[in-house]
Amino acid sequence: MNAREGGCEQEAAAAKAGISTRSSRRIERGEHQPGKARQRWRSRPDPLEAVWESELEPLLRREPKLKPMTLLLYLQRKHPGEYSRSILRTLQRRVQQWRAQHGPAKEVMFPQEHRPGEQGLSDYTQLKPVKVTIGGEAFAHLLYHYRLAYSGWQYVEIVEGGESFISLSECLQNALHECGGVPKAHRTDSLSAAYRNLGGRAEKDLSFSYQKLCEHYRMRPSRNNRGQGHENGSIESPHGHFKQRLRQALLLRGSTDFDSKADYQACIAEVVASLNQSCEAEFGIEREFLGALPTHRHPDCEVLSVKVTRNSTISVCCILYTVPSRLIGQRLTIHLHHDRLVGFVGLQPVVELKRLHVPKEAPSRRGRQLDYRHVIDSLRSKPRALLNCQWREQLLPSEDYRRLWGQFLEQFGSDTACRLMVASLYIAAKQDKQQAVLEYLESQFAAQSLTLSGLQQQFGQTQSSPHPLEVHQHSLFDYDQLICHDSIQSPHPADPTAIAQIPAPAPHAQTVELPGATG
Question: What's the predicted TM-score (pTM) here?
């Protein structure tokens, strides 16, 4: 009012008074209604007055974690019919006020200051509840997540087979080379891949392999206290942000099925790249403080030595694998990665196989990873070996081929079924037409016109036949000389008339006996 009396406009006077223009007009007109004072007295009797100080408060002092619903059930059990559920809200407010005044001290979260180049963090996470498939088949995997604490730069990679040191070593080194430098410290939770978890101090509980990895990159290993996941908040919280972005990207894509693992990894890389764009300036600063990468990588695989059996197989970690039959009898040096096996003869890589991981819920740790392409040349030469082969179900490349095999046995018998299936697998292996061969077999079998010759003609395969033998008859003249002991003028072998003129042996000619023969 003083501002208005001093000549200020309505808006200016209201602004000086800290009220709205509308309120200032009501004040001038005398229509302003001041707000009512907050009522600070009870409007109805306290339903807990008889039991709060005598029963409920002593229970809370003895055990502060008791919940209001538990206290209500206690009252209903001790005082039947006196306390209904309608007092629950009153009881919740009373417990809340008591805890604010007399409750125990709560854990305090202290904000941390992160310095550039000081700390990198690693952890594994699962993409729940999304079900990712590769080629229509469920893809069991984890996601390795690496993050720099100062800038928030991230790296994510697909991991098969669980939290192993092999996967930690390979993925961590990939992340370090991707960001172009090494932080001073590397932090994880109590990963069994890095720590033995025997209850000792972190620096004494390191596994030997993880210790050597950190020494190679000159990083100081550290971990949070067991059960205190918030101590790794710089990686735990970004888990949720990244997975939310990835779920949205999959929804936008319209499908969670990928043609290959590489396509899925490319989708993840796009999401990570968009997240890293928001911290590009901070990462530029932190990159200057990262340590230099060593000249070579630390070994990121387990090295084994196995011999290829006569069955063209090797056994690695209780899993049976087939290898190309040309390697039978060779001793291979196997580099075992988390998702693949690479076999070497000397320093030369000769075979690479996808690693099989047996699920934890499986009744046995043993398994088979067999490829018909490795043994198809031998199988073609003896097709009936397929009939009673112990690996037949694993050699057939899909469930559709196994179904066709059963139909062939019923329709054609064992011999024809073996020749037909082996010929189909041979064409599929040599021409890389597994799906095309399957479609042809299904259509021709349904039309009851499937034959071996028709299959070979369809895919340009002809039944190999042996080369005709050229037999040259040698001259029989020497045998005639053995029979005829008379001295005969030898005719020229090229003169057929001369051979016809050889006289027959005389009836009284002496019989020629073989050495040791009886008379």
Answer: 0.66
